[in-house]
Design brief:
Length: about 160
């Protein structure tokens, strides 16, 4: 059975991400959720905050580990002795970028396989950016993120600053 990495920004983790993690944890020997450090993106939560939030939501999954990585994901793949990059494919709009990334990662490391899971139907339209906007506008987000994430998000939006 292969080991998988699930890389992303997770700003913040949503029920859509958790759906992929849970299903991945059943398919793979292990799933390492990797918060990718990307200096070009302005994020609401710091890397450490995002790692802590994901850990809090995946405590019940023994074969899931959460870490962060700065640099190429294929390097992380080698370091973690994993073979698969796991990603979610929500809509056709995700496809072009994912296609490019999968081929580039394969070029960088021919042993790297990228595998995609379709989100469960109710999460198809869910994105971290949408959750941040809804929360900032005071909408109910309880259907989209676990309760602990909702609390942290509301606290952050009521006083926190953007962090790199
Ligand atoms: P990135 O900036 O790398 O796209 P994200 O945190 O937005 O990072 O997403 C990480 C991965 O999770 C991506 O493969 C993305 O397609 C997937 N994903 C995001 N939201 C959902 C969702 N609602 N359902 C399924 N997969 C999702």
């Amino acid at each position: 059975m292969a080991r998988a990495l699930y890389p992303g920004t997770f700003d913040p983790i949503t029920n859509g991400h958790l759906d992929i993690i849970r299903r991945g944890a059943q398919l793979f020997e292990s799933v390492d959720v990797v918060v990718a450090v990307n200096a070009r993106k302005a994020n609401l939560f710091s890397i450490d905050e995002r790692v802590d939030m994901i850990r809090a939501c995946t405590r019940d999954l023994p074969n899931v580990t959460v870490l962060s990585h700065a640099g190429l994901m294929v390097e992380c793949l080698r370091e973690r002795k994993a073979q698969v990059l796991l990603r979610g494919l929500r809509a056709v709009s995700d496809f072009e970028h994912e296609f490019q990334m999968a081929l580039m990662n394969k070029k960088l490391d021919p042993g790297c396989e990228t595998m995609y899971l379709m989100p469960s139907e109710q999460y198809t339209y869910l994105a971290s950016s949408l959750v941040r906007e809804l929360a900032a506008l005071g909408a109910d987000i309880s259907e989209f993120v676990p309760p602990e994430i909702e609390t942290v998000l509301r606290r952050k939006l009521s006083g926190g600053k953007r962090t790199p």
